[in-house]
Amino acid sequence: ITSFPPPVVSSLLNSGGKLVINMTNVMLCLTPMKFSAVVGDALDAVGQVAYKLDPRVIDTIMARLNELRLDRADYILCIPPALQTLSMVKQLGKDVTGVSDTLLAQQAAEEYKGMRQDIGNRMTICNYFRDERPYWGIPVLDFRGRHYNRSSFLANTSPDVIRGMIRFATGVPLGSTGWDWLRVHMANLHGGCKKKTRQQKVEFVNDRMDDIIRSVENPNEGHQFWKECDSPVQALITCFEVVDALRSGCPEDFVSHLPCHQDGSCNGMQHYSALGRDMEGARLVSLSAVPSSLDLYSSVAKRVQSKLVDQLDNKMLPDNIHTLARKSMPFAIRKIVKQTVMTTVYGVTKSGAEMQIERSIKRQYGQSVPDLNRIAPHLVKTIFEVLDEVFAVARKIQRWLLTCVARVSAQGYFMTWETPLGLVVEQPYAKVPLGNTVKSRLYEPKFVLDTGGEFDVRIRDVSASKHTIAFAPNFIHSLDATHMMMTAMQMRKEGFVYGAVHDSYWTHAAHVDDMNRIIREQFVALYQQPIIENLAAQLQEHFGDPNVNWKEDVFLNFPKPGHFDITEVLQSERFFS
Predict the structure, then answer these.
(1) The pTM is what?
(2) 201 dihedral zone (left: phi>0; alpha: psi -120 to 50; beta)
(3) Is 263 assigned a catalytic role?
(4) Residue 560 and residue 15: Cα distance in Å, rounded?
(5) Is 94 a residue of the active site?
């Protein structure tokens, strides 16, 4: 965190400087030769944005922190009670086999102490900026191109309790559209309005205006409106902004500093659907101009139920399948299938999905569910069948990516590719003892695990399993990072302030319409490029075997896309909302 504007990234690149990014125990150094100047421009776009903190929210949070008792949790601060019992933990659906009350209490006390210290450290820094002095975050990228701040204390990626204090240092008058978007943002943070139209969200906030005013006047007294929201502290600062605008006498002329968010709808699956041009998948994740009336998770749950009914009605199936279908039916609901569907984009395995389903069922229905070890695998199998139907080409692409990475890692190389913006991505997964340095054969960035000597990567040094598991999600993350950077550069070009947390894009309320247009235009521009074809060509060039016939080459036998028209995204209201 700095009280001065950070250095311009592109100038560092031109002068031969390095960007250093910490990743757990790994430090990745990107030299100018392998770091596209366009990516530097994108970092400039987000790094030159100044922020400040709202002292009213700081006071509210400090008051809660000072009054926090050991035997009470505070969901606003995301802190559990320091004193826990086995019965309390069992209610959360956790396995406490072999754990004593004494041990659990000790663990809870340590967890409580750490969480309280963390929030206390963050609040100390917040108090330093309570006079609304501007600050800047130092922008860095991870190896996939995803943007983070160098310090996590006052970052956009901070938890709600910190993110809810952050405002833009510069303000913009709301105007007629900005006043509407400020109220839409308020409704979005509430969480109960996700399926409502933009006008319905405005009306919802108007109807709750008295409750919003009471939240501002006495934030910590009683059950206030902001406390019932999904992101309570962000809701609180929005309450202050809405009331300030209302009391100004003319909300359209009120100068607003609050970042308004537009979030992707199942963003990972949006990228997969755009790659595969799946018609039905695009409709379910709001790429289509005519989106589904159900969200993705509800739609999958409904289709799983339909398949289970078909299994029950199919007399050709054995009795054990009929029994499993009947027992699985009560659990084919949105809450149970959501996590598995959501993590499909991250390459969740069959066994991993089964564990997710078991945990979800225990959390929802308690520990004693008969035949859970048979119900979970059957549900997972049915969910995967539904996903293969809805995202037919996308799922084929996912399997093709796995085939490609298996071949690359078998040759003893790190999986490497180049994003549409020219950023070279190399997965840093090697079987290396701590204290050694790995030098890549291909692009020569160094992955420094500790101090020590250097050696070339040999076949046994590549962690094939980690490369295989991580490639598909990392590839998608590199694409969502590309979309974010393309949006950042265009926002800066048109003179708008812009911030982002992965697939959540921020700007002033008055400029949300402009940002929505740019988000869609840049997504279409990204996916009008032959991304899969380019990836196949890169892999063939660097890792291909010239003696293999192209018809038999796994790199060149990529799935052909479907028939979805990517330009429909330009008319999709729910694509980002």
Answers:
(1) 0.86
(2) alpha
(3) yes
(4) 43
(5) no
